[in-house]
Design brief:
The chain has about 325 residues and is mainly alpha-helical. It has 13 helices and no strands. Helix 1 runs parallel beside helix 4, helix 1 packs across helix 9 and helix 3 crosses helix 7. The two termini are about 25 Å apart.
Length: about 325
């Protein structure tokens, strides 16, 4: 496998940045609700699912799972490698940037970029409405778990959460591995030297282990600020709803989309549904929640738009350099 220095650097930056930034989506509630579990057990479980998913992708001949079909293979330059480097910096600032926009925008044509934006905003809207409806209905009966979470040690909910999060993690990989694989030459099963597979798997596993070791990093605070995300039962329901929405858009077409938009839309719809059911007009729940929810939702959406603005700026800058 022939790979340039800039392509290798871009791949390494992307492998860490995409994992670290998107950990709040797929693994954030899993980490926050399993604070009593050693990090290496969580890594072993999710690492095994990663291995199984990627081996399936390699065996079928496309570890990007069709998401790069609209992106022609090009020679990677220094400015392509800068995109995931920006992402690393924004991740450390707790900004939930769309990795799809920030990384793939520098490779996408104007037409593909527009389709990515339309699909991502549609994903935000669908996940918002779906999550609002789901939590408006269920929050009255199975949301509150008490201060310490009455189901935190319930084995059935714990098993359900690990299975659900594993399914979500695999589904997310089939969406977002394209953001990493775009820096490498397109995979050819007939290559047969094994270096390609080794590079991808080892790099991702190292980044995944580090993310679990630091318990999600600073960006994990976005998940922790939401209602009951530290509890196993609530975390299970979040992952299940998110996975359904993500799976729907995965099957819709092969155009890449921002899974961050889907996740943040789901969290916003969830918080609003909980407030409408338990807080609206009810002094007891929480005038505190009422005062906090809208600034929080506004702040999250503003961060998404900031990331989008940076991504579009990078895309135009690269087109100028080309």
């Amino acid at each position: 496998m022939d790979i340039s220095l800039w392509a290798l650097l871009g791949f390494m930056f992307a492998a860490y940045a995409v994992t670290a930034n998107d950990s709040i989506q797929t693994l954030g509630t899993y980490i926050s609700s399993n604070s009593d579990v050693k990090w290496y057990w969580m890594f072993a479980f999710m690492g095994s699912i990663f291995l199984a998913t990627m081996m399936y992708g390699f065996n079928m001949g496309d570890p990007a799972f069709g998401r790069l079909s609209k992106f022609p293979e090009i020679d990677i330059q220094w400015y392509h490698a800068c995109a995931p480097l920006f992402l690393i910096g924004l991740t450390r600032l707790k900004i939930p940037v769309s990795t799809t926009f920030l990384v793939l925008s520098v490779f996408a044509s104007t037409v593909v970029m527009e389709k990515m934006m339309v699909k991502s905003f549609l994903g935000y809207a669908v996940s918002f409405v779906f999550a609002f409806c789901v939590w408006y209905i269920i929050s009255k009966y199975i949301l509150n778990e008490g201060v310490k979470g009455v189901d935190s040690h319930n084995k059935h909910w714990r098993i359900a959460q690990w299975v659900t999060t594993g399914w979500l993690w695999s589904t997310w990989l089939k969406h977002d591995m394209a953001n990493i694989m775009v820096f490498l030459p397109r995979f050819h099963p007939a290559g047969g030297d094994g270096i390609y597979e080794f590079l991808v798997i080892v790099s991702m596993l190292v980044g995944l282990a580090f993310m679990f070791w630091e318990r999600g990093g600073r960006i994990q605070e976005i998940v922790l600020s939401k209602t009951n995300t530290r509890y196993v039962r609530s975390a299970t329901l979040i992952d299940l709803v998110y996975c359904f929405v993500l799976y729907f858009f995965k099957e819709l077409n092969n155009i890449p989309m921002s899974t961050t938009f889907v996740f943040m839309g789901m969290l916003a719809g969830r918080e609003l549904g909980i407030w409408m059911q338990l807080g609206y007009g009810k002094i007891t729940y929480t005038n505190r929640h009422k005062k906090a929810i809208f600034p929080m939702l506004y702040s999250d959406f503003l961060r998404l738009m900031l990331g989008l603005a940076v991504s579009v700026s990078l895309a135009y800058g690269v087109s100028y350099l080309n």
